[in-house]
Amino acid sequence: MSGLSRRMSNSSQTSNSPLLPRSNGDGTHGWRDVLENKMTWAWYTSIMSSGGVALILYNLPYGFPGLWVLGGIIYIASLVGFILLLATHIVRFSLKPRLIRASITHPSEGLFVSTFAAALGILIVDGATYAEKMHTAHGMALRASFWIFLVVSVIFGVGSPLTQFSKAQHGEPETTPLATQTVLPLTLVGYAAATVAAHISTRDHHIAMPIIYMGIAFQGMGILVSLLSLSTFVDRLYHYSLPPISQRPSMYVAVGPPAFSALSFSLLAEQCLRHFPAEKTAPGGANEIFGGVALYYILFTFSLMLWGLSLWFFLISVFTTLAALGQMDIAVQQLQMFALIFPNVGFSLATIQLSRLFGHPKVLAIISEVLSLTVVGAWAIVVLATCYGILSGRIFRTV
Fold this sequence. Notes:
Elements: H1 31-38, H2 44-59, H3 67-95, H4 98-105, H5 115-129, H6 131-134, H7 139-166, H8 189-197, H9 205-240, H10 256-275, H11 292-323, H12 334-357, H13 362-392, H14 395-398
Helix pairs in contact: 2-3, 2-5, 2-12, 2-13, 3-5, 5-7, 5-8, 7-8, 8-9, 8-10, 9-10, 10-11, 10-12, 11-12, 12-13
InterPro entries: Mae1, SLAC1/Mae1/Ssu1/TehA, Voltage-dep_anion_channel_sf
Pfam families: SLAC1
GO molecular function, one term: malate transmembrane transporter activity
């Protein structure tokens, strides 16, 4: 199956789909079949999750010296994986150009097109985060990468939903939040903006402020559009009950947009206060209500509210999944699990960030540490399962 389908089954595919698996006469799958039908956009979820885990390891409240080395290795591996995937997709679409349109409009793979841009954004944040440890940060390169990511995120964050809107589908109402993945890159713009702004000197606030402003604007775009989709998801839960057992884990996708927005707004709040201080020489003037002080409290308030919303979705997802755990088929596809780990990466990072802003109160710090290590452990299991699936060939028969 191509990626994480809306029904998490083959029922969403039509018999004439160019993305349906094809086999040779003896039932085996050749390299061209794998390239055309298996190397879908969903593979970028592995880059997103791996890059996010590298960020978790860097920001753990109780991390030990040298832990950043492990995170750096994961970051480098993610970067190499992204380049290899990009090259693979260039070959894939070069061999059969009609697959570009087919993949974008496909009912399941189309939902994962924006994960390419999201993976790019996570790698930019990783590069800026690990710059001080692994190499010297190049300010101009970081700023250029942000503006490039902004353009790419808008293209994918607008184009992908537009493609979904244009498809006339009148099937059974969907009760999973997978549609939010189409605007996923927009919910990472603020994170990238805050990370890049942190590497800009306060003497160059005139350079940092446009980045911060655009980060706030497009982060707002991403979270508000996501909330519209999530409100529809909750409304359908009221009307059509919980998703089928096989689809319960997909509910974790709803955690991602508010979690990453909470993280982004809290980081942007810090950068507003840093680059726009409340003093007479600040661009805002002499009145302390102007400048970074006001923006700090506004953004911090938004961050707390969105973290609370992500906590609600997280708890709902946990309890509904646990309730069906005994009946759930554990033979899920590895790429599905990467897509479900990434939202929890955002929730872990947001919890760590808020814990840090509150001065690392012991209870919150321990909770964020346990949550983060759980996400890292789940990611490690999925990576090992994916490696086994690739080596055994199983993943190319089922993805």
